[in-house]
Every structure is written in C-alpha cells, then in structure tokens.
Design brief:
The chain is mainly alpha-helical and 252 residues long. It has a single domain, classed as Up-down Bundle (Fumarate Reductase Cytochrome B subunit), CATH 1.20.950. Helices cover 60% and strands 4% of the residues. It has ten helices and four strands, in the order βαββαααααααααβ. The strands form two sheets. Strands 1-4 form a two-stranded antiparallel sheet. The chain has a two-stranded antiparallel sheet with strand order 2-3. α2 packs across α6 and α9 packs across α10. The chain is elongated.
C-alpha cells in the first residue's frame, strides 16, 4: 500500500511587526546603553564603593566594594573619570529624551494599549504559570500568536520602560550637584545622594540582565527572523511543525 505524500508546507506568512518609531528607538538605545554602561564603569573606577544614605567616603562602611574594571570595557579606555562623565551625561540626555518621545508617540499610535497592556486573563495565575512553563521548555508560539507579546514579554518590557530606565534617569539626576541644589527634594526621594548612587548601580545591572536574557531569547527563537524584523519591520510567522500521517496497516 503506497503511503500518502505529505502536502507541501505553505510559504511562511510575512507581517509588518515593528513600526519605524520602535525600530529607531531600539537601535538608538542599543548604542546609548552601551556607551552609558561603559562610561559608567570608568566613573565607578574613580571610587569603587557603594553606600546607603546621604554621605559616603573611604572611612565609611560600604555595602559593596567593586573591582577596578579593565580599559577594554570602559569609555574612555584610559583612566579619565572626567571624560567619562562627559560621555555619560551626553548619552544620558539621549536616553531620557528618547524615552519621553517614544512613550508619547506610543500613546498616540496605540502601541502601549495594543501591545503592552496586560489583560485580566493574562494576570491569572494559571496563564502566568503556563507561560513560565512554555519559556522553560523553549516552546515558542507559532502562527498569529507569534506576532503578539506574551505576558512575560509584556512584564519585562513594561518593567524596563516604566521601571528601570526611569529609575536610572531620576537617580542620575539626584546625583548631580546642580540638580540637587535646584531640587532639594530629589536626592531625599531616594534616601540621600549615596542611596541614589547605589540604586543607579542596581538599575544599571538590572538593565544588563534584561539585555542578556533578551539576546538569549532572540537567539533561541531564530536570530535571523527576529533581527530582520527589528531592521526592516517585516516578520515571518513561524509555522507549527507538521506531523507526517501514519500509514494504516494493510490487511494482508
């Protein structure tokens, strides 16, 4: 008995996934975060100790003592905290103004409500647990579901957009002597200038952790398709794997 020939797989559907505003902000942020992180490491080298409260100096108890970071991972590569602060401040404004413009435009075009809003069903413990299990088993959505953010993605992106980046911006402002002089309440909002510095450090490494997980997910989900969609906007919907029909046993 001849086996049936499986039907040919249809060509994957292409959809427009990312708007130009999202793609532009994404790639500007890649450069901005790299420069901020590397210049921040050079600034840290000037005094690699973190404190809580309003004051902190060598005789004071530090809750964390940092290593000296090598030149290949800092900006500039030679020891110069003053130059690092120039780089850091310049790109901090790029980050802050870019975030403000992106959020305002995302509210206007409906991106926040349509793509990032977490529905009541997604907040249910059963839905959250299923999404966690799917990620742990590396089961990625296929078909139209692949074009939508799942609840873990929404939580991660909202945590970065409305949590980590604003915390970085405002703690950075709280550390500035001019801002502290003009707005006395700003350092106090975080428990003092040294507390703001510690929170700034924690938020920065939180952003690094997000970046590492984000890159890992891109690689596992299919880097060519994912990166291409963030460059051109076009995304190929992954198709579910087709199982071959089983042969029916012959009678004789």
């Amino acid at each position: 008995m001849e086996s049936e020939v499986p039907p040919a797989e249809p060509p994957p559907e292409r959809i427009k996934r990312h708007r130009a505003s999202t793609r532009t902000w994404h790639w500007i942020n890649v450069i901005t975060v790299f420069v901020l992180f590397m210049s921040g490491l050079m600034i840290s080298n000037a005094h690699p100790r973190l404190y809580w409260g309003k004051f902190g100096a060598n005789p004071d108890h530090a809750w964390l003592e940092l290593p000296q970071f090598p030149g290949w991972i800092t900006i500039p590569s030679t020891y110069s905290p003053a130059d690092a602060r120039v780089w850091h401040l310049a790109f901090a404004w790029v980050l802050a103004l870019g975030l403000l413009a992106y959020l305002l435009w995302s509210l206007v075009n409906g991106h926040v409500k349509r793509d990032l809003h977490i529905t009541r069903r997604e907040w249910s413990p059963g839905h959250l647990w299923q999404d966690i299990k799917d990620h742990a088993a590396l089961r990625f959505p296929t078909g139209p579901a692949a074009a939508r953010y799942n609840v873990l993605q929404k939580l991660a992106y909202c945590g970065v957009l409305f949590g980590l980046i604003p915390l970085l911006i405002f703690t950075g402002l709280a550390m500035g002597p001019a801002m502290a002089a003009a707005f006395h309440w700003l350092p106090e909002l975080f428990g003092g200038r040294q507390s703001a510095r510690s929170l700034h450090f924690i938020a920065a490494w939180g952003l690094v952790a997000f970046f590492i997980v984000h890159i890992a997910m891109v690689v596992l989900a299919g880097p060519i398709n994912e990166v291409r969609s963030m460059i051109t906007g076009w995304y190929r919907l992954p198709q579910p794997k087709q199982t071959l029909p089983q042969e029916e046993p012959s009678d004789g």
